[in-house]
Design brief:
This protein is of the alpha/beta class. Helix content is 27%, strand content 25%. Strands 3, 5, 6, 9, 10, 17 and 18 form a 7-stranded mixed β-sheet that branches. A 6-stranded parallel β-sheet has the order 13-12-11-14-15-16, sandwiched between helices. It is globular. The two termini are 17 Å apart.
Length: 381
């Protein structure tokens, strides 16, 4: 069938919205009619090169990352199933998990679906069933898909392992947000930071991930949630999502958390800035109390190696610095669980959506994100 998609033909280019050819699903795959796709910063990392594979890795994997259809935060309805699909049928409503969950690899078996072995392919841009393409330009060029999903298109073909079935009555345009941003942010606080009732938590960066880290910390019972961002209106909105205090900079936050805790500092600090850079780690850990934990969720450039960190302070104060991907969540468990919290009015999803866009407006959506105008922009189909 023919459909349309937003394609990134090369690094540092604009998204090009074009007609494409979409194949039928093969064994283990399904075709999805999407309702909405979030405009996540990870797709911007493709544009800037932060998440672009080096030529040696691309050669080793036997794929070229570009051209690629963007988008990895989506939800929709199954309209066709390929041979051998056993967990889904036509008409099912699904959230696309940007990391597949096979349920059988060692990580899945240990309850770490965010580390599923199939996750190694999310930047390869091909179907994880056979490493070939289902999406093609009209001249026959194979097109990759971001995170095995490619949600910047009203129709896509994905592996069964990328789909999490949800209840039919949940609005799909809001459910889409749980495919990445909500789960990642909420899990940064609840899973990676392991926020406990009565603790003091700092969240640095209030985009789609950070705002949900604020929600997660508040839901976990934190006494103080200090939300940090340069943008005034985002700090104001953070108070609606559970923040108790705000700061405009890390320096201001450092002073405020010291005042709130009588010098003990934060039990947990979570980095959810647009880009993680090595010079942010020292200040992050400087806000952490002895025996506390710092969490790095923000994506760093793929070759970032230099980090500023006082190792004496790290060991002598018994601090912990941990990484976080997809909120260290189990998507098949946590996506339905978060949507139940939404149904009960305890998790804010509607309020996250700052602006909606058509597919043709994808570049405007990212310009708004860069200019600090969105918590989360959403493409609706």
């Amino acid at each position: 069938m023919q459909t349309r998609a937003a394609i990134l033909w090369e690094q540092n280019a604009a998204w090009s919205v074009e007609d494409i050819e979409l194949d039928d699903p093969k064994a283990g795959e399904v075709k999805i009619k999407l309702t909405a796709s979030g405009l996540c910063h990870s797709d911007e990392h493709l544009v800037t090169g932060d998440m672009v594979l080096g030529p040696e890795i691309s050669e080793l994997m036997g794929v070229q990352q570009f051209p690629i259809i963007g988008g990895h935060e989506g939800a929709g309805e199954v309209v066709e199933v390929g041979p051998g699909v056993t967990t889904l049928k036509e008409g099912d409503h699904v959230v696309l998990s940007f990391i597949p969950a096979c349920g059988r690899c060692p990580s899945c078996a240990r309850g770490r679906q965010h580390l599923c072995d199939l996750g190694m392919y999310i930047l390869a841009g091909r179907q994880i069933t056979d490493m070939t393409a289902r999406h093609h330009s009209l001249d026959g060029t194979d097109l990759g898909i971001m995170a095995c999903t490619g949600t910047f298109a009203p129709y896509t073909v994905v592996s069964e392992t990328s789909c999490v079935k949800i209840d039919d009555w949940i609005p799909l345009d809001k459910a889409a947000l749980v495919g990445c941003g909500v789960t990642t942010g909420w899990g940064s606080a609840v899973n990676a930071a392991d926020v406990r009732a009565g603790e003091t938590v700092v969240v640095i960066g209030l985009g789609g991930i950070g705002m949900n880290a604020v929600q997660g910390a508040a839901l976990a019972g934190a006494r103080h949630v200090l939300a940090v961002d340069l943008v005034d209106w985002k700090r104001d909105r953070a108070l609606e999502f559970g923040a108790t205090h705000t700061a405009a900079s890390i320096e201001e936050a450092m002073a405020k958390v010291g005042e709130l805790t009588w010098g003990a500092m934060a039990d947990k600090a979570i980095l959810t800035t647009s880009v993680a850079t090595g010079d942010l780690i020292g200040p992050l850990m400087g806000m952490v109390a002895k025996g506390g934990r710092g969490v790095v969720t923000a994506v760093a450039p793929i070759l970032q190696e230099d980090v500023k960190l006082n190792l004496f302070d790290l060991s002598m104060q018994r601090k912990e610095l941990v990484g976080c991907i997809f909120g260290n969540a189990n998507p098949r468990r946590d996506i339905p669980r978060l949507l139940r919290l939404y149904e009960e009015g305890r998790l804010k999803l509607d309020e996250l959506v700052t602006n909606t866009y058509s597919l043709d407006e994808v570049n405007q959506g990212y310009e708004d994100m860069r200019n600090g105008k969105n918590i989360r922009g959403v493409i609706t189909y």
